[in-house]
Amino acid sequence: MNLHAIRAIYLFEMARAWRTLFQTIVSPVLTTTLYFVVFGAAIGSRMTEIDGVAFGAFIIPGLIMLSILTQSVSNASFGIYFPKFTGTIYEILSAPISAVEIVISYVGAAATKSVILGLIILVTARVFVPYEIAHPAAMLAFLVLTAVSFSLFGFIIGIWADNFEKLQFIPMLVITPLTFLGGSFYSIDMLPEFWRTVSLFNPVVYLISGFRWSFFGSGDVSIGISLAMTLGFLALCLIVIWRIFETGYRLKA
Amino acid sequence: MPSDTLVQEPAARPPDAAAPPPGIISVQGLSKTYAGGFQALKNVDLEIRRGEIFALLGPNGAGKTTLISAICGLINPTTGRILADGHDVVRDFRAARKKIGLVPQEISIDMFETVWATVSFSRGVFGKPPDPAHIEKVLKDLSLWDKKDAKLLALSGGMKRRVMIAKALSHEPQILFLDEPTAGVDVELRRGMWDMVRGLRASGVTIILTTHYIEEAEEMADRVGVIDKGQIILVEEKTALMKKLGKKQLSLELVEPLARLPEALAGYDLGLENDGRRLVYAFDTQGERTGVTRLLRDLDALGLRFTDMDTKQSSLEEIFVSLVRKTP
Prior knowledge:
The complex is a heterodimer.
Chain A: H1 3-19, H2 21-43, H3 55-86, H4 89-94, H5 99-128, H6 136-160, H7 164-180, H8 193-199, H9 203-216, H10 223-247
Chain B: H1 5-8, E1 25-33, E2 39-48, E3 53-57, H2 64-72, E4 79-84, E5 87-88, H3 93-98, E6 100-103, H4 115-125, H5 132-141, H6 157-169, E7 175-179, H7 187-202, E8 206-211, H8 214-220, E9 223-228, E10 231-237, H9 238-245, E11 247-254, E12 270-273, E13 278-284, H10 292-301, E14 306-313, H11 316-326
Parallel strand pairs in B: 3-8, 3-9, 6-7, 7-8
Antiparallel strand pairs in B: 1-2, 1-4, 4-5, 9-10, 11-13, 11-14, 12-13
Helix pairs in contact in B: 4-6
């Protein structure tokens, strides 16, 4: 294991977050705060409880997931796309560092940023709505698992993308809609039968459901299925990344 | 992950004073065909000797950068094998790459970083523990010390290029690749870089440089390799190459200009320059007879007098051009 290399890249990526503090932390926190003000305080007070949980509290897990998903993908994709764009990737490719170590450093840094962001939003939410976390350990585990899975997914996008449009394409046109339709702001039980069935094909439903379970002890689908789907997505990303390095796809001619 | 480093060690050699030292880089049967079908390297064999400065010359698109990229791990070779200090660069990439520093042709640096941060980063990526004293030395050697806290985007082009070199030297490599190190660098800075490269060689680093500037190879190299259309067409000691292929030119400044060459001199390879004021004679230094004495005698017989004479060795550039033209 080239631990010095992992440390160097990880710290470099974390330093980049510090340099772009507004973009990485302040802006998502601000956005989430606006959601709480609008949906939690303004509209939420007129909404009925969902599964015995006040609407303001009900949307917390979904909102955190929304931020984690989009930020993991954009952070990790940018982290690996940028060296490709500027050409500095030559150094990583010529260094005595394996594919596993490259992934650990880039994805580790992106996931760390997402988890920190998630926790900040969690604390911010406390200012607006009272809530309790039923399974704190499970909550943290889901947070980390999701951050890692989507950072891996972002890493894949960053390698696949060969221009800035492609880099933006997946987060904008796939992640955001799937998250909104994945039950961030509602329980999929509230949907008509047909749309509930359609929703079950949306992988984000399982993430949000599992995460919500860790808060309130109940979700749209059982916690076992949520966990299995999340792990399945993680495994899928790992396989794709393994193939990328095996073939040198978009990295080596 | 490959771990069989022992297998990669070169076989012990019987003591033999005449045997050349084992090459620090050994390229064997290397070919590279890009996805589009373009064959950039064709069955290249090349040995780089320990401690030498090797200049790789070739026209644009000849395969210089592809060859370096294959050795440094930036591209996957189609066939063939490369050893760096006895380590296979694919199977035993960790041991091989630790020995190698690469300065690519393009300036590719993270513009928002400081000089100190980016050079320290490189050392870490190459698996070395932090060593501020070494980074300080590298930056001082490259006259970058007073810029260590400056952001890269604030540096001049020449400084950025030196930062690239500092990054490559941050992990104390034994082999340094310089891909067109002085492209677009002014004369003074170029001299400075040459001095630096000589200093590195003196400290035991093997240097492989590619260049268009023949002058650079002529000035620096111990040996010269010429690559054209993906094939190494020649590898030779620089001095031997110049002696073997070198032609000398004798220039005679005439007192009275000539309108054309006298018939009596038709047997010589002569040219008239400078409005007939200069007679130029090209001869092969390796030839049995250079013909100089005979020419001078004949000129005397014709009553031609001259004010000055000068001989000049043809440059590596002329040799290079004649070599590349010959290949089909």
